[in-house]
Design a protein that fits this description.
Shape of chain B: elongated
Number of strands of chain B: 11
Oligomer: heterodimer
CATH architecture of the largest domain in chain B: 3-Layer(aba) Sandwich
Distance between the termini of chain A: 23 Å
Largest interface: A-B, 22 and 21 residues
CATH superfamily of the largest domain in chain B: Periplasmic binding protein-like II
Strand order of the largest sheet of chain B: 2-3-1-4-11-5
CATH class of the largest domain in chain B: Alpha Beta
Structural class of chain A: alpha+beta
CATH class of the largest domain in chain A: Alpha Beta
Number of domains of chain A: 2
Helix content of chain B: 25-40%
Strand content of chain A: 15-25%
Helix content of chain A: 25-40%
Distance between the termini of chain B: 31 Å
CATH architecture of the largest domain in chain A: 2-Layer Sandwich
Number of domains of chain B: 2
Strand order of the largest sheet of chain A: 1-5-6-11-10-9-7-8
Strand content of chain B: 25-35%
Largest sheet of chain A: 8 strands, mixed
Order of helices and strands of chain B: EHEEHEHEEHEHEHEHEEHH
Structural class of chain B: alpha/beta
Largest sheet of chain B: 6 strands, mixed
């Protein structure tokens, strides 16, 4: 190889910003963790689904996906339709279920794993390609379904060896009920949503005062309990007089009851100021946090209006684990991930090739991992 | 107990911040010591750590959890747009984000003409002109002495922090439009807030009570 081609080939080894190679021990660790989570989902009776890596833009449009449409990888197909690399599995799975189970009203349990793509520009050090594992329970709107999904998420995380984590649960209806009762208009509500979910209470206060909202409601909204324990939930209803909010709290209490039966209550706290992007989650929503990573390692919630966007009127709830963040947490907490025994190597020469090959075949048939390599002459 | 780490924006905010923390019973005198070469300062008794960072980097440290709590100007928070909780307005370090330029540029702003804007804060400038004023502008990122822009003819106006306006005045410039008021803020990492809720809330409460 001459010097010029050598230099050119060197330039080819880089990957673009936001994607990377995963190999060796890390790759093996990831598949171990993935396998464990999938095993838990299987034990809950969830079956695998594969949806395409890219879909029509409309599937991930503003009303459906949580992602900002500016951050999607878009391109055109032969017909000139806009195609998007999936930024998130939930809309794809919902589309698929709406299509194949249109006449079915029994509950559907589905799990998936794969890579998602969002265009993270601005050099913020975030990867564009993430591996997600998730599960969706569709056509069941009960509190039992909520509990099943949250408990399954907790058990999946436990199964990876993670011990120190917190699951925070919120209820979209609590806040909506209060906004309705206080007669806050939609524009103000959207502005307020940003401030409150960012825990930016002084900005929220300013918005509320400017909008001329009654003091009583300003107090309720600014003091809505964040990070509360289950027995503090009733405090959220002091001075609140609407059905939507009170049934949201009643629902959370009943959910906590069920989670206690699962034996996972030690991980649970409640955050009533947790809000979702507009109209995405319709009931409970939850996030799992742990040390060593700056973002939630798993998130989920109930989205009862999503399937109807694909023509099927049915409730649904789901969660997903972000493998990128989870692995970061496992490594930074130095959690031991069992490393599957590697392969053995048998060496041959030109003379004993047949003999060694037979040996290797025997071992392989018996289930051993065997590599064959020629002893180098020098 | 885990250490809670504070990231403080270098510069004028540091002394006021440490004074406030002092009032809350949190002392770490080394932080304000100009002669030290240390990068990280510790208060062993309360299990707190402090470090100084360049302002725009503070939200980054906090977002990634390298620091649990950050204290930094609102201008930086708006510009960096990081995922952090913004929990307290400290009220000091007050100033304004403004569009400034020579008096003659006023007309260009009023008539939505295509103009050139120089700024250290391209995101804030873009948001203001595109989303609030719906004016098409050409934004040029500068890294300091932004006032030079209109003087040497690089840009028509600038978007920058104005505290007293004396630098502007000395250079024949004036405030043409005000974008928003600014002050120092406390920001918190989202995960730390969930996991160290009690300690962080206590700290914030103490700071809030000791604000004048």
């Amino acid at each position: 190889m001459n010097l010029a081609t050598k230099k050119m080939n060197r330039e080819l080894v880089h990957t673009p910003d936001g994607v990377r190679d995963i190999y060796g021990r890390e790759c093996s660790d990831r598949s171990t963790v993935k396998h464990r989570i999938k095993e838990i989902m299987k034990r809950f009776g969830y079956s695998n689904i594969t949806t395409p890596t890219f879909e029509f833009f409309e599937v991930f449009a503003k009303e459906i996906s949580q992602e900002n449409s500016k951050d999607l990888y878009k391109f055109f197909d032969n017909d000139g339709s806009t195609i998007v690399l999936r930024p998130d599995f939930t809309p794809s799975v919902a589309r698929c279920i709406a299509k194949y189970f249109m006449e079915n009203d029994d509950s559907v349990r589905i799990c998936y794993s794969g890579n998602t793509f969002t265009n993270n520009h601005r050099l913020q050090g975030k990867m564009s390609e993430h591996t997600q594992l998730g599960a969706e329970l569709m056509c069941d709107g009960s509190v039992y379904a909520d509990a099943e999904i949250i408990a399954m998420m907790i058990q999946s995380l436990e199964e990876t060896g993670l011990k120190d984590f917190q699951v925070t649960i919120g209820e979209a209806d609590y806040y909506r009920g209060i906004c309705e009762e206080a007669k806050i208009d939609e524009a103000t509500e959207i502005e307020l949503r940003d401030a409150i979910s960012g825990k930016n209470y002084f900005a929220a206060e300013k918005i509320l005062i400017d909008a001329g909202v009654e003091d009583k409601y300003i107090n309720i909204l600014l003091n809505s309990p964040d990070f509360a324990k289950a027995n503090e939930l009733d405090n959220a209803l002091i001075n609140v007089n609407n059905k939507r909010s009170s049934s949201a709290i009643a629902h959370l209490k009943s959910l906590y009851q069920k989670l206690k039966i699962y034996g996972v209550e030690k991980y649970i706290s409640f955050d009533l100021s947790m809000l979702s992007p507009l109209n995405y989650y319709t009931g409970v929503m939850f996030r799992a946090y742990t040390y060593g990573v700056g973002d939630a390692i798993a998130t989920g919630g109930r989205y009862d209006t999503l399937l109807s966007k694909f023509g099927k009127d049915a409730p649904a709830i789901g969660f997903m684990v972000d493998l990128e963040y989870l692995m970061k947490a496992l490594y930074s907490q130095k959690i031991n991930i069992p490393f599957a025994e590697g392969h053995q190597t048998l060496y041959f020469t030109d003379d004993n090739y047949e003999e060694i090959l037979q040996k290797a075949r025997k071992l392989r048939n018996a289930g051993y991992y065997v590599a064959l390599e020629k002893i180098s002459e020098s | 107990m885990r250490y809670l780490t504070f990231a403080l924006g270098k510069g004028r905010l540091v002394n006021q911040t440490m004074e406030l923390l002092d009032k809350c019973g949190i002392t770490c005198n080394e932080v304000t010591d100009k002669n030290t070469r240390k990068l990280i300062f510790t208060n062993e008794e309360l299990k707190l750590k402090f470090f100084l960072a360049k302002g725009p980097d503070v939200p980054t440290y906090v977002e990634y959890g390298a620091a649990d709590i950050g204290i930094v100007g609102e201008d930086t928070i708006l510009e960096e747009q990081r995922n952090v909780y913004e929990v307290l307005d400290l009220g000091f370090g007050k100033c304004r984000m403004c569009v400034a330029g020579p008096k003659s540029a006023k007309e260009l702003l009023d008539h939505h003409e295509m103009i050139r804007v120089a700024s250290k804060y391209p995101n804030i400038a873009k948001d203001y002109f595109y989303n609030k004023k719906n004016q098409t502008v050409d934004i040029i990122k500068l890294n300091g002495s932004v006032e030079l822009g209109p003087i040497v003819g690089l840009s028509d106006v600038i978007v920058d922090i104005v505290e007293t306006g004396s630098t502007l005045k000395a250079n024949g410039l004036e405030v043409l439009e005000e974008i928003c008021p600014l002050s120092a803020r406390v920001i918190v990492n989202q995960v730390s807030m969930q996991i160290e809720t009690d300690r962080i809330r206590k700290l914030i409460k103490a700071m809030k009570e000791n604000l004048d």
